Amino acid sequence: QVQVVESGGGLVQAGGSLRLSCVASGSILRIETMGWYRQTPGRGRELVATITRGGISNYADSVKGRFTISRDDAKNMVRIQMDSLNPEDTAVYYCNANAVSAIGLRSYWGQGTQVTVSS
Asked: What would the mean pLDDT of 55-83 be, rounded to a whole number?
């Protein structure tokens, strides 16, 4: 069993910064791609950023230059530094980990953390 837990959401003013963290735990052999997604009632769930085991990152156009994703494989952790936040970044942010365990490769999701950016 693999668990994914996010932390670090909250309320911030426009132009401010937040850092989200996510840790995967359980019977993990290794983690492949990890990433962050966000969801709002109007837009559904969308990709924010991903990072491969080799460190290759990919960003949504809307966050390029403002968000930075990183990972620490020793801790099974992925973080995202979010700068120059604007109200359009308000959403529930979900962590995703593609983890290999005894049952093979599966995709696991956290419960989500709310990010609210006030204007």
From this structure: 98
